[in-house]
Design goal:
With about 230 residues, this protein is of the alpha+beta class. The protein is about 40% helix and about 20% strand. The strands form three sheets. A four-stranded antiparallel β-sheet has the order 1-8-3-6. Strands 2-7-4-5 form a four-stranded antiparallel β-sheet. Strands 9-11-10 form a three-stranded antiparallel β-sheet. Strand 10 and strand 11 form a beta hairpin. It starts with 10 loop residues before the first helix and ends with a helix.
Length: about 230
């Protein structure tokens, strides 16, 4: 018998006794418009939530990691397709039982509302990212966002298990622009590669200024500025 009192219960406790399920990169947990029979808690790994357009394009609407819930919107059908980016471990809980447990406990209701707010905030964050004027601003904001949600002990290291195509789809850019912008930031000494799927921030304040729309003249090194001016005036 669970020693936790109803007032001490939390959403994580609903999943703690469920077995871990493993998914490999590229494997779908569920598909958009599937019947929403379960709610999932992410125990480890990263996933992408995406929608498929009529012309076959994939639009990534968010990235999910440990502690996030999938299918928490409680719609009759899943709103997105969710796929594993890295090896993923999940716990699932039947939706009907989940709704019953939440209905019986006001503390769980509060936590669920908080999770739904997080989901809305994530959607708003993407809207803000897409509204940015330049590729530099978009990528800088994305890197800071991924840093904020990361759990690395080295706060200057950002884990990016997703592909550059994933990043491009999320930011509304082309993969060429993403690659070019990453190279630009690296050549400017703001970031550097820290592994196959990670980036190290060398100049945090400069990255923040760039994310806020600071003019590139103030952060590009003199050699890069000279080349840029020469290209423009040629």
């Amino acid at each position: 018998m669970d020693s936790r009192t109803p007032s001490a219960a939390d959403l994580c406790s609903l999943f703690s006794r469920q077995p871990l399920e493993r998914f490999e990169p590229g494997e779908a947990i569920f598909w958009e418009s599937d019947e929403a029979t379960h709610v999932f808690e992410v125990a480890d790994g990263m996933l992408r939530a995406l929608r498929l357009l009529g012309d076959g394009r994939r639009i990534i609407v968010g990235f999910l990691g440990p502690g996030d819930l999938l299918g928490v919107s409680l719609k009759e059908r899943y709103l997105y397709t969710v796929e594993a980016i890295s090896p993923v471990q999940l716990r699932r809980f039947p939706r009907g039982r989940f709704e019953d447990e939440v209905a019986r406990n006001s503390h769980l209701q509060e936590q669920l509302v908080s999770k739904l707010r997080d989901e809305m905030t994530a959607a708003q964050d993407q809207t803000v990212l897409l509204s940015r004027r330049s590729a530099d601003e978009k990528l800088a904001n994305f890197l800071l966002m991924m840093r904020q949600r990361g759990n690395s002990e080295h706060r200057s290291i950002i884990e990016l298990p997703m592909t550059r195509l994933d990043i491009a789809n999320y930011l509304g850019m082309t993969i060429e622009t993403v690659s070019r912008t990453i190279t630009k930031l690296a050549n400017s000494g703001i970031i550097e590669g820290a592994g196959r799927r990670s980036i190290k921030i060398l100049k945090m304040e400069t990255l923040r200024l760039l994310a806020e729309g600071d003019e590139s003249e103030r952060w590009m090194p003199s050699l890069v500025r000279a080349v840029t001016h020469a290209s423009v005036n040629a």
